Protein backbone atom coordinates (compact mmCIF):
# COMPACT_ATOMS: atom_id res chain seq x y z
CA UNK A 1 0.00 0.00 0.00
CA UNK A 2 1.37 3.38 -1.00
CA UNK A 3 0.25 6.24 1.25
CA UNK A 4 0.58 9.81 -0.05
CA UNK A 5 0.16 12.32 2.78
CA UNK A 6 -0.77 15.89 2.00
CA UNK A 7 1.28 18.71 3.53
CA UNK A 8 1.04 17.52 7.14
CA UNK A 9 1.81 19.72 10.13
CA UNK A 10 1.88 19.24 13.90
CA UNK A 11 2.37 21.27 17.09
CA UNK A 12 6.11 21.68 16.45
CA UNK A 13 6.03 23.01 12.89
CA UNK A 14 4.17 25.90 11.30
CA UNK A 15 3.54 25.11 7.60
CA UNK A 16 4.85 27.81 5.26
CA UNK A 17 5.37 28.38 1.58
CA UNK A 18 9.06 29.03 2.21
CA UNK A 19 11.42 29.54 5.11
CA UNK A 20 15.11 29.41 5.95
CA UNK A 21 17.15 26.38 6.91
CA UNK A 22 16.32 26.62 10.63
CA UNK A 23 12.56 26.24 10.46
CA UNK A 24 9.48 28.35 10.82
CA UNK A 25 10.25 30.54 13.83
CA UNK A 26 11.95 33.38 11.95
CA UNK A 27 8.89 33.87 9.73
CA UNK A 28 6.63 33.85 12.79
CA UNK A 29 8.95 36.33 14.51
CA UNK A 30 8.83 38.65 11.49
CA UNK A 31 5.03 38.60 11.70
CA UNK A 32 5.13 39.41 15.41
CA UNK A 33 7.51 42.31 14.71
CA UNK A 34 5.31 43.68 11.92
CA UNK A 35 7.98 43.07 9.28
CA UNK A 36 7.03 42.12 5.71
CA UNK A 37 6.33 38.42 5.17
CA UNK A 38 7.56 37.02 1.86
CA UNK A 39 4.75 35.17 0.05
CA UNK A 40 5.49 33.42 -3.23
CA UNK A 41 3.63 34.56 -6.34
CA UNK A 42 0.49 36.53 -5.55
CA UNK A 43 -0.60 34.19 -2.77
CA UNK A 44 -3.62 32.89 -4.70
CA UNK A 45 -2.43 29.39 -5.62
CA UNK A 46 -4.41 26.69 -3.82
CA UNK A 47 -2.97 24.32 -1.23
CA UNK A 48 -4.09 21.67 1.24
CA UNK A 49 -2.78 21.32 4.81
CA UNK A 50 -3.49 18.33 7.03
CA UNK A 51 -3.23 18.19 10.81
CA UNK A 52 -1.20 15.19 12.00
CA UNK A 53 -4.14 13.86 14.04
CA UNK A 54 -6.24 13.63 10.87
CA UNK A 55 -3.41 11.93 9.00
CA UNK A 56 -3.08 9.42 11.85
CA UNK A 57 -6.81 8.67 11.73
CA UNK A 58 -6.66 7.81 8.03
CA UNK A 59 -3.38 5.92 8.30
CA UNK A 60 -4.56 3.74 11.19
CA UNK A 61 -7.65 2.83 9.17
CA UNK A 62 -5.40 1.48 6.40
CA UNK A 63 -3.21 -0.67 8.64
CA UNK A 64 -4.22 -4.30 8.31
CA UNK A 65 -6.97 -3.37 5.84
CA UNK A 66 -6.97 -6.09 3.17
CA UNK A 67 -8.78 -3.83 0.71
CA UNK A 68 -5.88 -1.36 0.82
CA UNK A 69 -3.29 -3.85 -0.43
CA UNK A 70 -1.91 -2.82 -3.79
CA UNK A 71 -3.61 0.58 -3.64
CA UNK A 72 -2.21 4.10 -3.68
CA UNK A 73 -4.07 6.30 -1.21
CA UNK A 74 -4.06 10.04 -0.54
CA UNK A 75 -4.47 11.20 3.05
CA UNK A 76 -5.23 14.88 3.31
CA UNK A 77 -7.78 17.38 4.44
CA UNK A 78 -10.62 18.36 2.14
CA UNK A 79 -10.11 22.01 3.11
CA UNK A 80 -8.53 23.92 0.22
CA UNK A 81 -7.01 27.33 0.92
CA UNK A 82 -4.96 29.98 -0.84
CA UNK A 83 -1.55 30.81 0.55
CA UNK A 84 -2.93 34.24 1.44
CA UNK A 85 -5.53 32.53 3.64
CA UNK A 86 -2.90 30.22 5.15
CA UNK A 87 -0.58 33.08 6.09
CA UNK A 88 -3.57 35.06 7.32
CA UNK A 89 -4.55 32.23 9.69
CA UNK A 90 -0.98 32.04 11.02
CA UNK A 91 -0.91 35.79 11.66
CA UNK A 92 -4.32 35.63 13.37
CA UNK A 93 -3.13 32.80 15.61
CA UNK A 94 -0.11 34.93 16.55
CA UNK A 95 -2.29 37.95 17.22
CA UNK A 96 -0.32 39.79 14.53
CA UNK A 97 -1.22 41.76 11.42
CA UNK A 98 -0.02 40.13 8.20
CA UNK A 99 2.16 42.43 6.09
CA UNK A 100 2.51 40.42 2.86
CA UNK A 101 5.29 41.08 0.36
CA UNK A 102 4.72 39.19 -2.89
CA UNK A 103 7.66 37.87 -4.89
CA UNK A 104 7.65 35.74 -8.03
CA UNK A 105 8.44 32.10 -7.28
CA UNK A 106 10.97 31.99 -10.11
CA UNK A 107 12.66 35.14 -8.81
CA UNK A 108 12.87 33.62 -5.33
CA UNK A 109 14.51 30.55 -6.83
CA UNK A 110 17.02 32.59 -8.83
CA UNK A 111 17.82 35.27 -6.25
CA UNK A 112 19.18 33.22 -3.36
CA UNK A 113 21.37 30.29 -2.43
CA UNK A 114 18.38 28.58 -0.80
CA UNK A 115 17.00 25.55 -2.60
CA UNK A 116 13.52 26.87 -3.31
CA UNK A 117 13.24 24.92 -6.55
CA UNK A 118 11.81 21.70 -5.13
CA UNK A 119 9.39 23.33 -2.67
CA UNK A 120 8.24 26.21 -4.89
CA UNK A 121 8.81 25.66 -8.59
CA UNK A 122 8.05 21.97 -8.41
CA UNK A 123 5.28 22.19 -5.86
CA UNK A 124 3.80 25.11 -3.91
CA UNK A 125 3.78 27.67 -6.71
CA UNK A 126 1.06 25.58 -8.35
CA UNK A 127 -2.46 24.91 -7.15
CA UNK A 128 -2.72 21.42 -5.65
CA UNK A 129 -5.99 19.81 -4.61
CA UNK A 130 -6.08 16.21 -3.39
CA UNK A 131 -8.95 13.77 -3.86
CA UNK A 132 -9.64 11.54 -0.85
CA UNK A 133 -12.47 9.44 -2.30
CA UNK A 134 -10.45 6.22 -2.20
CA UNK A 135 -9.47 6.75 1.44
CA UNK A 136 -13.10 7.33 2.38
CA UNK A 137 -14.12 4.10 0.66
CA UNK A 138 -11.38 2.14 2.43
CA UNK A 139 -11.89 3.81 5.82
CA UNK A 140 -15.65 4.43 6.18
CA UNK A 141 -16.42 7.45 8.31
CA UNK A 142 -13.04 9.08 7.76
CA UNK A 143 -12.96 12.84 7.46
CA UNK A 144 -10.41 15.44 8.44
CA UNK A 145 -11.84 17.03 11.58
CA UNK A 146 -9.31 19.81 12.16
CA UNK A 147 -9.83 23.02 10.23
CA UNK A 148 -6.57 24.85 9.62
CA UNK A 149 -7.70 27.96 11.50
CA UNK A 150 -8.07 25.79 14.62
CA UNK A 151 -5.10 23.48 14.11
CA UNK A 152 -2.68 26.33 13.59
CA UNK A 153 -3.71 27.86 16.93
CA UNK A 154 -2.51 24.67 18.63
CA UNK A 155 0.76 24.85 16.70
CA UNK A 156 1.37 28.54 17.39
CA UNK A 157 0.55 28.25 21.09
CA UNK A 158 2.91 25.29 21.48
CA UNK A 159 5.77 27.05 19.66
CA UNK A 160 5.27 30.24 21.65
CA UNK A 161 5.41 28.28 24.90
CA UNK A 162 8.39 26.09 23.92
CA UNK A 163 11.66 28.03 23.88
CA UNK A 164 13.68 25.34 22.10
CA UNK A 165 11.37 25.62 19.06
CA UNK A 166 12.10 29.35 18.75
CA UNK A 167 15.27 28.95 16.70
CA UNK A 168 16.58 32.24 15.34
CA UNK A 169 17.66 32.38 11.70
CA UNK A 170 19.46 35.69 11.13
CA UNK A 171 20.59 34.64 7.64
CA UNK A 172 17.02 34.16 6.41
CA UNK A 173 15.87 37.32 8.19
CA UNK A 174 18.60 39.34 6.45
CA UNK A 175 17.70 37.74 3.11
CA UNK A 176 14.05 38.79 3.53
CA UNK A 177 15.04 42.34 4.50
CA UNK A 178 17.39 42.60 1.52
CA UNK A 179 14.74 41.27 -0.85
CA UNK A 180 12.10 43.72 0.38
CA UNK A 181 14.50 46.68 0.26
CA UNK A 182 15.90 46.00 -3.19
CA UNK A 183 12.59 45.12 -4.86
CA UNK A 184 10.90 48.15 -3.29
CA UNK A 185 13.74 50.38 -4.50
CA UNK A 186 13.54 48.89 -8.00
CA UNK A 187 9.77 49.41 -8.15
CA UNK A 188 10.14 53.03 -7.03
CA UNK A 189 12.85 53.67 -9.63
CA UNK A 190 10.71 52.16 -12.39
CA UNK A 191 7.80 54.43 -11.43
CA UNK A 192 10.07 57.47 -11.65
CA UNK A 193 11.39 56.35 -15.03
CA UNK A 194 7.87 55.87 -16.33
CA UNK A 195 6.90 59.37 -15.16
CA UNK A 196 9.91 60.88 -16.97
CA UNK A 197 9.03 59.05 -20.20
CA UNK A 198 5.42 60.22 -20.02
CA UNK A 199 6.59 63.82 -19.68
Task: Describe the secondary-structure layout.
Elements: E1 2-5, E2 7-9, H1 25-32, E3 37-40, E4 46-51, H2 52-62, E5 72-75, E6 80-82, H3 83-94, E7 100-103, H4 105-110, H5 117-124, H6 133-138, H7 148-160, H8 170-198
Parallel strand pairs: 1-5, 2-4, 3-7
Antiparallel strand pairs: 4-6
Helix pairs in contact: 3-7
Provide structural commentary.
The model has no long low-confidence stretch (mean pLDDT 91). Helix 3 packs across helix 7. This protein has helices at 25-32, 52-62, 83-94, 105-110, 117-124, 133-138, 148-160, 170-198; strands at 2-5, 7-9, 37-40, 46-51, 72-75, 80-82, 100-103. The strands form three sheets. The protein has a three-stranded mixed β-sheet with strand order 2-4-6. The chain has a two-stranded parallel sheet with strand order 1-5. Strands 3-7 form a two-stranded parallel sheet. The N and C termini lie far apart (67 Å). It has 199 residues and is α/β, with parallel strands linked by helices. The protein has eight helices and seven strands; from the N terminus they run ββαββαββαβααααα.
